Amino acid sequence: MAQTLGKAEGAVYTRRLDPQESPMPGSANLNIMLKAARKAGRSLVKDFREVENLQVSMKGAGDFVSRADIAAQAILKEELLGARPTYGWLAEEEKEIDGEDPTRRWIVDPLDGTTNFLHGLPHWAISIALEHKGQIISGVVYDAAKDEMFFAEKGEGAWMNDQRIRVSGRSRMIEALFATGLPFAGRGDLPEVLQDLARISPVCAGVRRWGSAALDMAYVAAGRYEGYWERRLNAWDIAAGVIIMREAGGFAEPIDPEGNLIEDGAVICGNSNLFDAFARIIRKG
Ligand code: IPD
Ligand code: CA
Ligand code: CA
Fold first, then answer.
1. Is the pLDDT of residue 285 over 80?
2. What pTM was estimated for this model as a whole?
3. Domains of the chain with CATH codes
4. What's the CA-to-centroid distance between 14 and ligand 1, angstroms?
């Protein structure tokens, strides 16, 4: 048995229901988010194909990507606020808008992984979260170049296209793969990250730096690697990833155990077996 969650050109996302599972439709809000992500995804994929032709002029390519980013954000705003005009709006490329309904807000990164996009690397995503009374209740991370739609709603599990996803079951540090973010020009946290790497690299199977925080979290949720940590992020980088991680059976916490994950922008997440050992290493820093 399958339920249609929504249609886009050339794609229909369904949730395959286990015969034991009670039919639970994706909420109206989730369908709005999926539709918005696909629409913005089509616009970004079109622009992504152009980027390679522009590599000769760095300035030209940079401006083009900014325009692609802003165009994607405009599509998302029209779809999300168009459908729910009373919600608040927090998106990377513009000033926050308070909603008439103070309890709900969209948190959006129209293009996470901008540097990859600019360099023609197909590893970037659209990230959309819905917050209600300070809690993230739905999240969508869409890797449009690979057509991988990661999504979750509170209490409904986490999904990648029509497949239910779960964090990996690996429980030995030495077999575990991790990801992080490395500071780039203008960011001053390199010494901190180098200390993290000095502690974790010798005891694990490797550390990756992919360049999209939203996809890093989705990949831990899908069991592709065991954990991810990064500091100095923004709410829009991680909000959708948090619910996808948790619904996939993993942990997503602030690096400072007393902190607030969305406000601090310093996240550590991992599968349930390894989280404690992993967090001990990172939190020592
Ligand atoms: C960036 C990516 C990257 C992370 C940066 C973020 P952007 O987002 O998520 O992986 O290391 O800190 O700012 O700028 O591509 O939206
Ligand atoms: Ca981002
Ligand atoms: Ca961005």
1. no
2. 0.91
3. 28-165 (3.30.540.10), 173-283 (3.40.190.80)
4. 30
